[in-house]
Amino acid sequence: MKILILGNSQAGSLKKAYDAHKSIIGDVGEIYFYVLPGGTGPYLKVVDDRFVQTVPNSKNPPYADPPETPEMPISSFDAIVISALGYVDGGACYDSLMQRRAVLPEFGPIGAFQEEEFVSDHCYQQLFMNAWRTGHQGFILAASLKNNFDGPVFVQPFPHISSAIQEQEDWELRKLYKNYLGAHAFFTDTKESSLRSFEKEFGFTLLDYPAQTEDGAGFTDAKFMIGDFVHPTPEYGALVLDQIAKAVSEL
Amino acid sequence: MSENPYSCLPSKSFWRTAVSDAEKPVPASIYHQKWAISPTENVATAGSCFAQHIGRQMKASGFTIMDVEPAPAKLPTELHMKFGYSIYSARYGNIYTVRQMLQLAEEAFGDRETSSEVWQKGDRYVDPLRPTIEPDGLPSPQAVLAHRARHLERVRQMLLDMDLFIFTMGLTETWIDTRNGTVLPVCPGTVAGEFDETRYVFKNFTFREILKDLEKLRTMLQGKREGKPLRFLLTISPVPLTATATGGNVQVSTVYSKSVLRAVAGEFSDTFEDVDYFPSYEIITSPWSGECFYQSNMRSVSEAGVANVMRTFMNAHGPADSSEKPIEAQPATTKTDTETHIEEDADMMVKCDEELLDAFAVTAK
Fold first, then answer.
1. I need a labelling partner for B1 at 20 to 30 A (CA). Which of A204, B27, B195, B205 fits?
2. Is the confidence at residue B348, as pLDDT, over 80?
């Protein structure tokens, strides 16, 4: 069985885990990686049974293993995994554009942010869905696969941000809201419900967050995340590979 | 025949030339504007649901229609109406009575204590003063009050910045909270909240009360604006009452209500040079057009009716070539399934929370 893992930089943890412990998933089939950096990616769509980059980026070229993976026909794969779909919170290092899209007054907006337009939570959820549907390349890829790939598609949700971010004063969300933990819970819930909605719409299978990594408050246990609070460790990647192996073996 | 007061009147003053022999369905002479509207002046719109058409058409024709609470970027257009955006110049929803408009202005300027009342709707919360702008309400009373405070800030800015205020008067009937005198846009217990007969009383405003409220609004705005010129353009909504609380027949109550409003508009516009009246009500309701501009429910205005109203308006106020362009009712958004219980008129595509009375009304006895 040929299993293709498409992803963004988050897929690095999967690749490292795979390189270290091929047996986690190697027993169920051959693994192929095709990865393009960028949290809202991978920037790919399907044209004539091949992947085409939707946003070519010479600064951050794609990574593939084996190298010929990008040229392979999509129909040659038996299953496809989209890694880390649903980027929301950039922590203290990256942009959190989804969280800056509008203001939720119930969480106590701070500074200049409070002068921007207020929206209701339900309106925000619509903004979320629409932003992902129209501008998030990963979901555009998911839609493209629905129409162009007959095999199963699995989606790994973008890992929750590290629990260690709560102690960081430069956490972007903390600069926006007094009740930043309440806002974080809202964004987490909105992300989950949106992913579930797209699961139905695009016909993919959404994997769970690895249970061992969850702290119950919408964060990933810090021991599974590296220092930038956003990217997971190879240990996290190994747990996801295990999930993929189980899902594929049940086909 | 000797000279008399009628002998030198224009043809529009005579029934035969202005109606019987005039072009159909709407004679051009039915409206002559008091003054022109510049494409660069700030126009604010508010009022009963029919007001939406004027703002939308004017915007499409290049006028500067204010929107002080715009929809968030990236919110799909078809969802604007659902969340109360892009309907009027601010997210106040329908303002049916002059008292409601006056009350809003007073709150916006801090001349009236801001209502802290919040209605519960299941596990969500609703602003009683604009109960339909959020389809599911808000998550907490605090959220309602925060949104209301921001709304009032924006309305205040609109009232200060506008050059022309287009206001469509819709109803004389309303419900008042006796605890604080607050006029409500909908009866408690219909959209949300609970009806308490010891607290909420029915009120049918009289000619004098409405005229006084309009004059008070005009005077207040003049004072707040410190002499900055402001003009009013009044219209009367031709949409009949969904229901009357007078105990009488709804058709009779409709005629009474609209007649009072029409008389007020006439008195007000005759008194002040900065107030004009546009006869959308006459265009739609007149039997002399030879056409019925209502849909089969005899309440919703037909697309042709809206088009005739707007053609008349734009012929008077639009760009020079506007009469050459076909004027059609401007659709606001595509309605969603969840809105169908609110608006029975799919073609008109105007959200009218008065319609909610239909959805919540008990079967007529």
1. B27
2. no
Residue B329 domain boundaries: 39-361
Which residues in chain A have Cβ-Cβ distances shorter than 8 Å to B125?
none
The count of domains in chain B is 1
Question: Is B151 within the bounds of a domain?
Answer: yes
Distance of CA A36 to the CA centre of its chain: 12
Interface contact A126-B76, CB threshold 8 A: yes
List the single best residue of B121, B123, B138, B152 to mutate versus A (max A Cβ within 10 A). B138
Nearest-10 Cα torsion for B99, B69, B153, B234: -30
Structural domain includes residue B354: yes
Q: Give the model confidence (pLDDT) of B42-84 as tens digits.
A: 999 999 888 888 888 899 889 999 999 999 988 999 999 999 9
pLDDT band with cut points at 50, 70 and 90 for residue B273:
very high
Cα gap B162→B217, rounded to integer Å: 14
Whether residue A105 and residue B150 make contact (CB cut-off 8 A), yes or no, is yes
DSSP A1: -
- Return d(Cα B250, Cα B353) in angstroms, integer: 18
Looking up residue B222, the CATH number of its domain turns out to be 3.40.50.1110
In a domain, B33, yes or no: no
